[in-house]
Amino acid sequence: MDRRELERQGYLVTRGFIDLHAHLREPGFEESETIATGAQAALRGGFTTVCAMPNTEPAIDSPGLVAEVIARGKAAGGARVLPIATVTRGRKGKELADLVELASAGAVAFSDDGSPVDDARLFRSAVEYASVKGLLVIEHPEDLALSGKGVMNEGRVSAALGLPGISNAAEETAVARAILVASELDAHVHLTHISTAGSVDMIRAAKERSIPVTCDVTPHHLAMTDDWVRGRRAFAWEQGLKGEQISGAPADGTPFDANTKMNPPLRRLHDVRALRSQGRRVRSGGVRDQHARDRTPAGPRWRARRLVRSGHRAAGTDRRTGTRARHHTERRRLDRHRRWRDVDGERGRPRNARKEHTASRPRASRARRRRGRGR
Q: pLDDT at residue 294 above 60?
C-alpha cells in the first residue's frame, strides 16, 4: 500500500526504530518477559531492532550466553535482538568480565545497568578495554551511597508522603565521574536514562569541550513527574508554569502506585522541562542524543508488591511510538500556552502586548529609564 494512503488512514510511516535499552528478562525471569514476546512487542511498536540489557539471571557475562541471546532473538520472528553484555562478572561490580571475548561473541556494548560500577578504577578500566574494540560502556549513573534506600525523588512530594527519597546529587556525581573518565581516556561513554537538570547542564558543557560522551532519556522521564507517586495524573505538558493543572488534565489516581517506581525516579517538573527543552541533536545545540524506552516488565509476584518493596518498572515498547508523537505535539501546545499567559498566571494577552495606539512608539532604553527615575 502507498505511504500517502497509509498516512491518510492515520498511520505513522517511518523507518524502523532502534531501542537502545530494553529488558527482555530472559534467562531467569520468563514469567515477566521472554526474548520472543519482547521482540514481537517491539515490532508491533515500530521497532526493528532492540538492544537487550544483561539484567538477567544469570547475567549475560559469558560468550556462550551472548550467543544464546542472539540465537533466541533470531528464532523469535520479531525485531532483531542485539545483546549488551555485562561490565563486571555477575553485575557485582567486583571483577571485570572478559570484554574482548564478549565483543567477539557478538556483544554490541557493555553495561551493568541497574547496578552501576561503583568502583571508579574498575569503571575506568572497563572504558579503556571497550575502546580497544571500538565499543562503548553504557553507564547507569547513580552513586549508591547517596541513593541509599530511596524509592522516589527527594523533595516536597516525598516529604509529604513520608517516603525515603533519592536526591539529584546521586545521579549527578556519577555523571561528573563518567565525563572525567571519558575526557581523560578520550573514549566514548554513554549515560543512560538521565533525569535531572544538573545532568543536562554537565553533559552540555562536556559536548562543548568535544568530550566523547552521549546520553539518552526515557519517555516516562519526559512525560511524568514525581507528583504521579502521590496520585496526580497530569503529564508535564498538562501543567502550567508553576505546576498547576491546565484545562483537560485528568483526575487524580491512586497514590503509592508501585507502577510509578522508576530507577532513576520520576523527577520534579523543573527537571522534566530541562530534559524536554534539550530534545534537539547536538549539532543544533541540544544535549539529548537518543530516546531509550527502558522497557522493564514485571511479573505477577512483583506487581502485587507495595511501592516500597516492589521492583522498578516501566512497560510498553509496543506503545512508545505514540507516546513520543504525543510528546512532540503537546510540546508545541505547551510553548503556545507559555506565550499567552499574563502576569497573574491566567490565560490572556501576551505579557509584551501593547495597545494599538502605542504599538509604534519607540521604547526608552533601560539607561534612560533609570536616569528618569533618579531625577
A: no
